[in-house]
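PROTEIN DESIGN WORKSHEET
SECTION A - STRUCTURE
LENGTH: 144
TOKENS:
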């Protein structure tokens, strides 16, 4: 399906119309269209296909495997208190939250003109780092 859905430039559209499989896009003013010449720049409407071959190979390896053989054994829980670093990372993540529970920091959106030098944005890298810190702490303390 994915190979058959490639666009002339070799990429894949993020969205395809049901039944016709035509690629779908949105214009800068968010009107649905089949054309890709006026799409917003803050969102990816075309995807590279670099991992398709690897995904197809992995599918071939796994398609006939039993469900039991695909189950991963549970990771052993290491008993004991969390490390100082784990506690410190979790504390920093909690302390960095604003009153609404967000991790905001100075920055600007790539596609918008700066409206203020003090503009605050949510960076996904920061979000992921902080959620990972909290998850590590919870995992280390789950039996305490």
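SECTION B - SEQUENCE
RESIDUE ASSIGNMENT:
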């Amino acid at each position: 399906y994915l190979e058959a859905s490639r666009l002339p430039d070799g990429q894949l559209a993020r969205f395809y119309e049901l039944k016709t499989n035509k690629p779908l896009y949105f214009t800068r003013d968010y009107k649905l269209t089949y054309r890709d010449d006026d799409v917003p720049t803050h969102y990816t409407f075309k995807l590279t296909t670099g991992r398709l071959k690897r995904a197809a190979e992995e599918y071939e390896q796994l398609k006939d495997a039993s469900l039991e053989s695909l189950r991963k054994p549970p990771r052993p829980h290491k008993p004991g208190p969390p490390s100082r670093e784990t506690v410190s990372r979790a504390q920093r993540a909690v302390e960095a939250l604003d009153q609404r529970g967000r991790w905001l920091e100075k920055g600007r959106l790539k596609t918008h003109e700066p409206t203020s030098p003090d503009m605050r944005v949510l960076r996904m890298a920061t979000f992921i780092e902080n959620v990972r810190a909290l998850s590590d702490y919870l995992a280390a303390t789950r039996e305490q």
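SECTION C - NOTES
Residues 69 and 102 are 40 Å apart (CA to CA).
The beta strands are 12-13, 15-16, 23-26, 32-33, 46-47, 104-106, 120-122.
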